[in-house]
Amino acid sequence: MLLGSAGTGKTSLKRSLMEEPFNPHTTSTIVSDVSSVRPFGHKWQTRGNKWSEATEEDEIKELARLFKSSLSESSSHVSSESSLVSDSLDVSPAKSSAKHSDLDAKIKSLLKRVRTYQTTESHVQPFLHIWDCGGQPVYLEILPAFLTPRTMFLLLFDASKDFKEKWQSRQNTPDGEVHFGEVVNESTSDLMAKWMSTIHSYLVKHSKVGSRRSYFMVEHNIDDTPSPSLYCVGTRGDKLNEEKKEEVKKQMQLLYQEKEFSDLVQDVLIIDNTTSGKGEEEDPSITKLRGAIDGFINKLVVKTPVNWVLFRKVLQELKQNVISLSDAIAIGEACHIPTRDVPLVLKFYHELGVLLFYPKIKSLTKKVILSPKWFVDTVGKVFPLEKGWSGGKKWYLLRNKGILVQPLYQEVWQSSGIDSEEIIELLVHFRLAAQVQTELYDSTSKQYFLPAVLPGYTGDPNESQPGYKLRASPVHITFSTGYVPPGFFTRLATAVATDANVKLNFDKDYAAPDIHSKCIYRNRVCFFYGRPSDDFILTDVNTAIQVDVFRYVPESSHPVPFKAVCQQILELLNECCQKVEDTLDIYHGYDPYMLFGLYAYQKSSRRIKYVCQCSPSSEVHYIQDIDAVKQTCSDLVFCIIERRIPRPLTINESMWFKGNFSQEKHQEIPHLEKINDDSTKPAIQKVESTTIHSPTEISESGDDQQKVILTIRDLVEILRVLKNGHFQTTKWFNLGLYLGLFHDDLKIIEDNYPRDAERCLRECLAKWVRDDTEATWDKLAIAVGEVGDTTVADYIRSTKEL
């Protein structure tokens, strides 16, 4: 399976493996291109000693070799299977029907062709299925559904680019043009590490759990504990000298060394696809990669019963995209496969990428998809690449709101050969879609939310709608791998969208005209919770999923305490994360027909971490080792950076924990004068009484302070507070917009003082206090929070006792 971002040369690498000449004008792969290939190696014989696309003749020849090889065996079990070569098939009269007669005829015809094929070679040759996967961001969301452990992964990256540079989606068109798409908010190193950790978590861990095997696999001596293999392949090696290649290799090795997925990665190769098909001039790294694939095949190939191979060949001979499970069972019986074993044989070939079989999906339980490429392409029709849209409102809703309406998917899939409702159920089952009800379209039509089709968000994760009264400090959903697994966030968003208390928040009316109102992205989704006055936002920040909760009305006017809402949302997210992990378990876990229920999926360790707001700092860090069940508002906490100094929770941090601030108004907080260096906790020398206000008091008390009007005489103090709070001066323009200044006035300031952010900030604030007759510290704190500097906003509030 070839994985990697768009434009890294996956299709060119496939051509190199086939020794085909380099083509600089290959078109972008749409979703996935699945090919059946005959590889060569030290004992594989193929035409011209080269890899080649599998043909009908190859299949017949291989069956002939297989039968010849099996007939030479002395095992009675094999002899029984080899009786299939005889003229008649044992289809009992009780089961005779037109359908069975037709199957009987097909199999007899196939066997006749096999018997008449003369071969002197008994070596059985493998068929390799190559999945060349589309690398556009939208398709990376789909691919986790098709990972299987019997796979070698070639993880591609552009070796000529900086590892830390954000990569941009691109599409190569048939006429040679290159269309550049969105700039994705992650670098090459982020993407590579994500895929490594995902493959390890979903395919390696669960294959190591337990050693027992099902009676079926034991009976047929089949290895059902395969392990995947992974090579990191850097492309565009023609742009690098040998010294630079070694440097890139070391950079990639540092990415996975000492990580839990380090054993998965076999090697890092830098290749030059432009040398493909040039014989002795070919890049030795390409030859080495072919050899590695050959070695993996030797490890992967297992003795397969002859009737299984015949079964697969008959399925291919049908030349259909999908058949019923009952037809598959009938074919299995005709090939002397017991009825009870057919689902296991289907699962075996599912893992090899030959077909698709989903016994856990209600609408697909009784179907077998014989052409994976056809099915993936069919599903991919609603995951468009183009920036524009056609088809009017229906396509607009899909590409801009992530809403797929029933008339559109019925139209798109009407000629697919499978019912459109069955396809949509597959998307729902894999949590790529969630049924919702919005006011965007006719309520009589079904609507589904597909966040994966939307563009990505690249702005500040702390950005929020102005005017909130209360805001909880952010929490992060983290993973032991250090990255959010590919596809996890969009599936979490769809799981959340199905909750009865949740509604998607598509558009917000920002006070500032230049701030974009879009709220739904592939990696950032905004929801209403309970009622429109409460919002929560999920944002994929690559290393974690950030959760922000806001309230836009005073606490006294809301029937549910803000603290209770925050804790309910966190509980909801925990439940939804579990649902996503269970779904991914179905992707990659073993078939439920396995009698011993082995291979329990070991999930990546997921934890909730609370963002520490101990000081105004741009560096995100966490409160150390907090137990959410036992923690109360009155308990002291430790910053992960200043581990030896305890402190009380801030108002915003306290929203996630039990306890009532109004009952703890005079909580005594220790003041540190001396720290014992030999102790893990400081010695407390003095205690001072500190007043802690409730959320209601924060938003509605302190009226005298909040009503102090700021004038030009306060400009120096305003600048001093912002400087001490470490406000980022480069955000002065958006700050001005949130303070209510006109865009044109801010542009004049920008033009007068180019590249001088500090001077621009001073002029911006001067104009604000002159023009706004009700300028207050509270207004400034809210505006600072809206541009993303929430810690500075809290610093202003604490300094001015708001």
From TrEMBL:
Pfam families: COR-A. Gene3D superfamilies: Death Domain, Fas, P-loop containing nucleotide triphosphate hydrolases, Winged helix-like DNA-binding domain superfamily/Winged helix DNA-binding domain. CDD domains: Death. One of its GO terms (biological process) is signal transduction. Residues 1-26 are annotated as: Disordered. Keywords: Repeat. Residues 731-800 form the Death domain. This is Death domain-containing protein.
